Amino acid sequence: MKIAIDARMYGNEECTGIGTYIKNLTDNLFQIDSENEYILFLREPAFSWFTPPNERVKKVKVTPRWYTYSEQFILPLQFLKEKFDLIHYPHFNSPILFPGKSICTIHDLTPLSFPGHKMNSMIRRLGYRAVFIATVRKAAKIIAVSESTKHEVIEHFKVNPEKTVVTHEGVDERFKIFENRDIISQVKNKFKIDQPFIFYVGVWRDHKNITGLVEAFNLLKRKRSLPHQLVLGGREDLHDTKVREMINNSPFKNDIITTGYISDEELPLLYNSAAVFVLPSFIEGFGLIAIEAQSCGCPVVSTSTSSLPEILGDSALFFDPHNNEKIAEQIHSVLSNNTIKQELIKKGLENVKRFSWKKCAEQTLAIYRSI
Q1: For residue 116, what pLDDT is reported?
Q2: d(CA 116, CA 70)
């Protein structure tokens, strides 16, 4: 069987979650599958630096960017130049005119609940929705990254539950506990972190509720006089200035550090050195960053919505993301009580054993074969 994968988001800094999914899934697929052939459709610069691991993997350069008109009208023509039996779309944005057999991975329904600045017109919103619906309905199988996402897909799109399969994501091996404190100190010095710190990393979008985390930090500084800094990782959304405005207006803005994009080498070191990792989102399809933090021995405080109770179980403290005082209270519980902190670290390290990219690849390969 010849399997194609739409890998245009492969390792891309702008779509870190999906880019991470594609890279880790394909890395592991190519290791465990010695029978099938693969075609990876890639954009630059990933096309140039990606090296196929063996003769059964072929890379093909395509030009259309995601969420564009060319994705719908040019990409199908580029796909048709190659012969394959099945194509895997790792996101909802497929070229709906392409007639080939497909499966898709749905990470969450965020684009429908929190459309963002790119869908500021009614026509564009209707277009996104039409693509989402067509991708799900055309797919022979739908992969959901959590039971929570599966339930949302079934409820929202009225699809047959048997058509949707859950495959959890995994944790890359680079996320581990580091004993070398010198390299940890180096990365902290780079970002001018000189106090214990509360950590968040991810995209700066409405659904991530970073404004709620900043307000909770303000409450902690004002009521508890914490010495801690707040470190916010990830690229700013230049089209949405609410977070930056809140930081600038904070009386504790000198204790709020924004790092921008954090490299693959630096991120595990920051997880290792954080006093607590906070995931304040209103919606998360899986919450990969939470288990990355746990793999590095960092205690996690998390939103209680969507997939997080499923993914974290009793290994985190939870809060209502709409309640900033509760966010602050749960953060303080970890920072002020070493027994709670150590228990969360222990349970977190145990929790991450449930997730692996190899298992994700094995389950995905079984889905390919079933089709």
Answers
A1: 58
A2: 21
In the sheet with 276-279, reading across from the earlier edge strand, the strands are 256-260, 229-233, 197-201, 276-279, 300-303, 317-319
Q: How many Å apart are CA 126 and CA 121, to the nearest integer?
A: 9
Element (H, E) at 111: helix 110-113
pLDDT at position 240 is: 79
- Spatial separation of the C-alpha atoms in residues 232 and 213, rounded to whole Å: 10
Count of beta carbons in the 10 Å neighbourhood of residue 186: 12
Q: What's the CATH architecture for 181-354?
A: 3-Layer(aba) Sandwich (3.40)
Per-domain boundaries in the chain: 2-170+356-370, 181-354
Q: Characterize the bridge pairing of strands 317-319 and 86-89.
A: unpaired
H or E segment and range at residue 201: strand 197-201
Nearest to 56 by CA among 34, 84, 25: 34
The token pair at 50 is 């990606």
Q: Residues of the chain whose pLDDT is less than 70? A: 12-15, 115-121
Confirm or reject CATH 2.120.10.30 for domain 2-170+356-370, answering yes or no.
no
Other beta carbons within 10 Å of 160: 8
Task: Give the chain's length.
Answer: 371
Q: How many helices (H) and strands (E) does the chain have?
A: 16, 13
The partner residues of 87 in beta bridges, in order of sequence, read 4, 102
